[in-house]
Design a protein that fits this description.
Number of domains: 1
Structural class: mainly beta
Order of helices and strands: HEHEEEEEEEEEEEEEEEEEEEEE
Radius of gyration: 25 Å
Strand order of the largest sheet: 2-3-4-6-7-8-9-14-15-18-19-20-21-22
Helix content: under 10%
Number of helices: 2
CATH class: Mainly Beta
CATH superfamily: Outer membrane protein transport protein (OMPP1/FadL/TodX)
Number of strands: 22
């Protein structure tokens, strides 16, 4: 069970005596919420509810599925490096994983669908502090967490005149693992480890809306919004506790290091055969904005996102999170999307950029972490094909993101460098053949 008093207890000590994981602040809530890794959103710093594409997936707003003219698949890898600092100490922490998968299919002139798998949140932290006992010995309190939540989505979208609507159904699943240890340096006490496992499963959905006004055959204006309903999911929870000792061990390269030796044959607590049922309440997210642009050429967007993090609960334990609020400004340009030939290659390359600014919702020592980020990416086209009057082709997207979070009271800074590489495959399915 996570305690809201935890940081109050160890603020007088060093918060980063032992800092690992991707972010110590993923201790809060279900971990750090991962914004969409699909390139239509990532390269624009999370924008997407008011933009639309004929050949890129945009699960943030399922209303955009009706605009797909090509069967579109996307998958890639995602890497995050955190340069974290506290006072004079610094550390570099990194992790890599699949960025997600999605497939969008046009199902008619004004109808489309999509399905896929993507990350919802990631928990990966480790910190510790040392206390002195009344007999002069010391105990190190260690807190670690790993795991996260993912979601499978299946959605449909349709367009009627100037209005597009759509919805995604989500299956939420994953596990949040929280580990706490009391490690004594005195033989008079036995060190103990508690492992709490929270398995999550359930359903929710998000819905989206767009209104598009064409000024002429090329220029347009779009108003868009989406709502992720969050809601209550089921949890199955169990606790395992065991004693351990600390000693020396030899690594494979013959290096002697300190190691923990756990007593796993006689657990102090073991609830695995009788897990307790519980609930997790995930926050809702609303995002709205507008875009202006020129078809197949450029687009500019301004959007606002609010996530109700204060509503988060895990097994009747509320959090100390605030609601987060973010402003996003984004743009994209493709000099000449329909150009053919090697000499015109860079004219067909897509250039996207986005920036966001807001509060993270994470409160430490009565101060909230602010957040600023900027993303940019390049869509490098592969071989192009032409069907009737339509030119299309797949592409490789390489994009980069920078996020800064800071807390001046604790003198903590986090600087994330995020790298997202994806392959976007486009093809023309369900071609109606004509016979003479």
């Amino acid at each position: 069970m996570k305690s809201n008093l935890l940081f109050f207890v160890f603020i007088p000590f060093s918060i980063f005596i032992n800092a690992q994981g991707n972010s110590p602040f993923s201790y809060y809530g279900p971990g750090t919420f991962t914004e969409s890794s699909f390139q239509s959103n990532f390269t624009k710093s999370g924008a997407g509810v008011s933009s639309s594409s004929k050949n890129m997936l945009n699960p943030i707003n399922p209303a955009t599925y009706s605009n797909l003219t090509l069967t579109t698949g996307e998958t890639g890898i995602y890497s995050s490096i955190n340069f974290i600092g506290h006072n004079e100490s610094k550390d570099i922490i990194s992790n890599s994983n699949m960025g997600g998968f999605g497939l969008g299919i046009p199902l008619g002139e004004k109808f489309g669908g999509a399905f896929g798998l993507t990350s919802l949140s990631k928990q990966n932290y480790s910190f510790s502090y040392i206390q002195e006992l009344s007999d002069g010995s010391e105990v190190e309190d260690i807190y670690e967490g790993n795991g996260g939540l993912s979601k499978l989505f299946l959605g449909l979208g349709t367009t009627y005149k100037k209005i597009s609507i759509g919805a995604n159904g989500h299956y939420i699943f994953g596990r949040l693992n929280d580990i706490s240890k009391e490690k004594y340096n005195s033989a008079d006490y036995k060190s103990i480890r508690f492992q709490e496992y929270n398995n999550v499963s359930g359903f929710n959905f998000n819905a989206g809306l767009q209104f598009k006004q064409n000024f002429n055959t090329q220029n347009y204006f779009i108003l868009g919004s989406s709502l992720d309903f969050g809601g209550t999911q089921n949890t199955s929870n169990y606790l395992v506790a065991n004693y351990f000792t600390v000693g020396q061990a030899t690594t494979t390269n013959n290096k002697v290091t300190e190691a923990e030796f756990h007593e796993t044959t006689d657990f102090v607590i073991d609830d695995r055969d009788d897990p307790k049922k519980g609930k997790i309440i995930l926050p809702s997210t609303i995002q709205a904005g507008f875009s202006v642009g020129k078809s197949d050429n450029w687009e500019g967007s301004i959007e606002y996102r609010m996530r109700t993090l204060s509503s988060y609960e895990l097994n009747d334990q509320s959090s100390s999170l605030n609601n987060s609020n973010t402003i996003i400004i984004a743009g994209s340009i493709t000099p000449n999307k329909k150009a053919l030939g090697r000499s015109n290659y860079w004219k067909t390359t897509s250039y996207n950029i986005g920036a966001h600014l807001g509060n993270s919702g994470i409160v430490v020592s009565e101060e909230e972490l602010n957040e600023f980020g900027i993303n940019f990416g390049f869509g490098l086209p592969l071989k192009k094909f032409k069907y009737q009057t339509e030119t299309f082709g797949s592409s490789i997207f390489l994009s980069f993101g920078y996020v800064n979070r800071f807390n001046t009271v604790l003198d903590v800074t986090e600087n994330f460098l995020n790298i997202n590489a994806s392959v976007i495959l486009n093809d023309k399915w369900f071609i109606k053949r004509k016979f003479k």
